[in-house]
Amino acid sequence: MTSPHADEEPAEHRRFARCPQALAAVAETDEADLVAAVLRDQDAKMADSTVGRHLDHRAADLPTEHGRSRRVRNAATRRRRHRDQPN
User: Fold this and answer.
1) What is the value of pTM for the model shown?
2) Distance of CA 72 to the CA centre of its chain
3) Which phi-psi region, left, alpha or beta, contains residue 59 (left: φ > 0; alpha: ψ -120 to 50)?
4) Which 3-state string (H, E, C) describes the chain?
5) Could you list the pLDDT tens digit for every one of the 87 residues in the chain?
6) Residue 15: which residues within 8 A CB-CB, separation 6 or more?
7) Which residue, 76, 63, 78, is CA-closest to 31?
8) Which residues contact 81 (CB under 8 A, 6 or more apart)?
9) For residue 1, what pLDDT is reported?
């Protein structure tokens, strides 16, 4: 972050700012693991938003990269199932 008040930013805001960059740069072989890691974040809304935005950006590539999109979608589905289970 380049803001002069970066130290005052809540931690979840800093994570939200870094996650899309990391997802955009991740290697295909590591994408599903990174998506799963993002979805394990304590701030579920931030995590869901970040992964949703990432999948929206990846949507143009989905018809030609079925295996990759399936792995990412499966990671997201597992996280949602885990999060939605009653404690």
Assistant:
1) 0.61
2) 9
3) alpha
4) CCCCCHHHCCHHHHHHHHHHHHHHHCCHHHHHHHHHHHHCCCCHHHHHHHHHHHHHHHHHHHHHCHHHHHHHHHHHHHHHHHHHCCC
5) 455 565 688 887 888 889 889 999 999 899 999 999 999 988 888 888 899 888 888 776 666 556 666 777 777 777 666 666 665
6) 41, 43, 46
7) 76
8) none
9) 44
- Rounded Cα gap, residues 48 and 64, in angstroms: 24
**Do residues 22 and 34 lie in contact, with contact meaning Cβ atoms separated by under 8 Å?**
yes
- What is the amino acid identity at position 7? D
Amino acid, res. 78: R
Size (the chain), residues? 87
